Amino acid sequence: MDWSALSISLKLAFWTSVLLLPLGLVLGRWLAWYPPRAAAWVHSLIFLPLVLPPTVLGYYALLAIAPDAPLGMLWQSLSGRSLAFSFEALLLVSLVANLPFVVQPISNSYQALDRDIYDAGRVCGLAPWSLFWRIELPLIWPGVLSATMLTFTHTLGEFGVVLMVGGNLAGETRTLSIAIYDEVQALNMSAAGQMSLFLLLLAFSALLWMQWQNRRARRLML
Amino acid sequence: MRLYLLILTGILSFASPSQAESFRVAAAADLQQAMPHLVAAFQQVYPQYEPQVTLGSSGVFSSQLRQGAPFQLFMSASSVYVEPLVAAGLTQDEGHIYAYGTLALVSRSPLHAESAQAALAAWQAKTSRPRLALANPRHAPYGQAAQDWLLTQPKGQVLLNSAVLGENAAQAVQFVFSGALEMGVLAWPLVQQRFPEASVWRIPPESHRLLDQRMVLMHSAGDAARAFYHFLQSKEARAIFQAQGFDWVP
């Protein structure tokens, strides 16, 4: 097992999920409750990473983070480091690639939420922040859970974009899925098998846990 | 909840940097077998330095280096991919040729043939839809050399059109080794110790472009990378290269 690759995979998955969640909540709520006139456009834009080949995403990401591109230059002047082929670049692309996975479940939950309960809370004089914590969040909890789990597991499985943008650097951008690819090329089938089995079990148990949590949450709501 | 936090802090603090000073090496995939030996011998002399090796196709590395990839030493499988970097002023100098590579034709099943040419012809005669493995000629020097040789063979263009292209020299070997393909035009250093002698035929180097393997230090290179660069030119490293199937003269 390549422990450094595992830790990078987990780190990437963790930060992608944590950073995307607030954005997912804002976007999901907005799209479900206050659909903009150009909703079709916004939806199409958010879902784009789901259908695009990872190489297309990777291509544009490479252009965006190049040392002579605006984003790359901005990063360089702020952090003093080059953005290209860094963990931060990987995280940035991962945020874009996972946007649909976090927006969709949360938006669905908001759509299913009974607005009467929300209005009742508002009539009772709850502040917007309390409304969110005490009414919205508990009711959309299954959606939040799904969003987080999907993002986490999907990030662990990301390959094409990671290889293109990260460049397979040990200890920086070599994730577990890249390490498996490397081991297969080196004909180290047993090492590749170990890591593959680990990811398989991790992904399956995460999905299983999500199903259980969703069922429990639904039962609590009834 | 506390347990989660504990696990998370565990995860996030996991990657503790090692004590040794590490540096990044972009190495052509044909060095896959030689690299562990070279690194081990280097660390005997310099235990304080730690090379972090990424293997891949030289063309891909060359383009990544132009985009600012943080490698300090680039070990290409051909000078062709070093020259643009030198011209762009990204390297410390024009580098150094550390070895010459050669090709071999490899078959999974034993074939009675005297030469690579005869083996290829015999295999074509008994196979209805021959599919060869080779590295991608678009960006892998071994793929370009394989293409050169194939074009000197009868029906070479047909074989090229139906060839299965590996991302780099090592993946092309994996295609054959795994049994997915019957035959490949592969990097000799990657197959010399892994396939039985009866199913490997070396390809004369005159029949393809020179695989003059050049390495070069990038501007970011420090003492550690420089020490490795000099070690790779030593007698000891030379012996390892030779044992791993590389030549010293074209």
UniProtKB/TrEMBL annotation, chain A:
InterPro entries named in the record = MetI-like, MetI-like_sf, ModB_ABC
Q: Where in the cell is it found?
A: Cell inner membrane; Cell membrane
Q: How does it sit in the membrane?
A: Multi-pass membrane protein
Tell me, what is one Gene Ontology molecular-function annotation carried by this entry? molybdate ion transmembrane transporter activity
Alphabetic keyword roster: Cell inner membrane, Cell membrane, Membrane, Molybdenum, Transmembrane, Transmembrane helix, Transport
Which chain regions cross the lipid bilayer? 12-32, 38-62, 83-103, 191-212
Task: State where it is primarily located.
Answer: membrane
Q: Name one GO cellular component term.
A: plasma membrane
Q: Where is the ABC transmembrane type-1 domain?
A: 6-208
Q: Which family does it belong to?
A: Belongs to the binding-protein-dependent transport system permease family. CysTW subfamily.
Q: What is the stated purpose of this protein?
A: Part of the binding-protein-dependent transport system for molybdenum; probably responsible for the translocation of the substrate across the membrane.
Q: Which PANTHER family match?
A: MOLYBDENUM TRANSPORT SYSTEM PERMEASE, MOLYBDENUM TRANSPORT SYSTEM PERMEASE PROTEIN MODB
Q: What is this protein called?
A: Molybdenum transport system permease
Q: Could you tell me which species this protein originates from?
A: Nitrincola tapanii
Which gene codes for it?
modB
Automatic annotation (TrEMBL), chain B:
Q: One biological-process term from Gene Ontology?
A: molybdate ion transport
Gene3D superfamilies documented for this protein = Periplasmic binding protein-like II
Listed SUPFAM superfamilies: Periplasmic binding protein-like II
Which one Pfam family would you cite for this protein?
SBP_bac_11
Point out the coiled-coil segments of this chain: none
Which keywords has UniProt assigned to this entry? Metal-binding, Molybdenum, Signal
List the InterPro entries.
ModA, ModA/WtpA
Q: Name one GO molecular function term.
A: molybdate ion binding
Signal sequence residues: 1-20
| Residues that coordinate or bind molybdate | 58
Q: Can you tell me which family this protein belongs to?
A: Belongs to the bacterial solute-binding protein ModA family.
- The name on file for this protein is Molybdate ABC transporter substrate-binding protein
What organism does the UniProt record list as the source?
Answer: Nitrincola tapanii
Gene that produces this protein: modA
